[in-house]
Amino acid sequence: MSLFRTLATALAALSLAAPVGAQDAAQRRLWNAPSAPFRIIGNVYYVGTAGLSAFLIADPAGLVLIDGGLPESAPQIAANIRRLGFRLRDVRYLLNNHSHVDHAGGLAALQAATGAPLVSSAGDRADLVAGRTIGREDLDRFPPIRPARTIGEGGTIRVGRTILTAHLTPGHTDGATSWTLRTQDKGRPMTILFLSSLSVAGRPLVRGTPPRETKAVAEFRSTFRRLATMHADVMLSYHAEQFDLPAKRRSLAAGNRLAFVDPGELPRYVGAARRAFEEELARQRRTPQS
């Protein structure tokens, strides 16, 4: 069976579980617009769509793929990997930054195409197995996938000489996970951070009468504290606008080999995310959810 037939079959079998409203469908089309793959820096490649990131880390011993976009993103991600000259069967691991449809949706089809096991945090495992973000009926379902292994803070994935380290950064979901990679670009050492989402995105922070903070508040605050201690030469994330992907890509195409290098980006981004979180917490304290 061809690659695209394999992916199409998997998607067709699972698509009935994911109804989408008209407005959501329009957003999904924008996110899933095509994007040519390219090398970001070192052994890290962009293989995602125009709006949703997927990253490929290449080692002579095999490949690691982080994130699968939407269910309908899987064929494009697979095609992008092949367009770069890599083979799907050389993918050794699938990783996921968090268990929402726009990042976990394509994982099941990509697993069918690559045969690679999925590694996830314990906090998001139940969501991935269920094919939905448990407790968030406002979010779309996605094709379920069972992680072969769960990983905790400081756990590592190794392929050849490439080592990815997990950092638990919950809040956006209970198991949101960021990853660091130490690599080199033309002999220059680099720390790359694949940063999970830090937005509240409708998650309840305050509930009940009298209003009480949910566990998400402590999760976000622990994440902000952890990230404040971290350094990254390159910060990558999972929506194009979160790390100014279009502008950096244009700069790279114009000859700036270090377009994605900005050690100040992580503290700026985390500071802005913390302020947005505190504003949303204050708003929910005024009008708590039931």
UniProtKB/TrEMBL annotation:
Pfam families: Lactamase_B. Residues 1-22 form the signal peptide. GO terms for molecular function: beta-lactamase activity. It is an enzyme of class 3 (hydrolase). It comes from the Bacteria. Residues 51-239 form the Metallo-beta-lactamase domain. Keywords: Hydrolase, Signal. Its EC number is 3.5.2.6. This is Metallo-beta-lactamase class B. It comes from Sphingomonas melonis.
